[in-house]
Amino acid sequence: MTTLVVGELPRPRRAAIAAGREWGRSLAERPMPSERVDAEDGIRRLSTVLAGAGFAPGAVDDAEKPVIPLRHCPFREIAQQHRDVVCSLHLGLMQGVLAEVRAPLTARRLDPFVEPSLCLAHLTVSKG
User: pTM for the full model?
Assistant: First the structure.
């Protein structure tokens, strides 16, 4: 599947992010219309989805510049071969979850394999 995406689509990274966003939206528990989700709750909700998908997220140390450590990639073998597509899919997943829960956060970057079993998801807090 990944080889098909890489070989056939003109912009595989963009396609993977878009697919990931849809996946993330489908996994997120949408808050009630009157419910306000703050950054802390958004991180908690995203971490819950990531844990359910097998990423083993760790705690966020800095609320102003949140980074979620992901200690396990459930797609590690394929991600090592097709990092651009698989990691873009995962970034899109995080973006979709945060959009669906209306959190004042954006998943802006995913640093894959900074250690053999560690990826870092960098979030940006929206000021408003």
Answer: 0.90
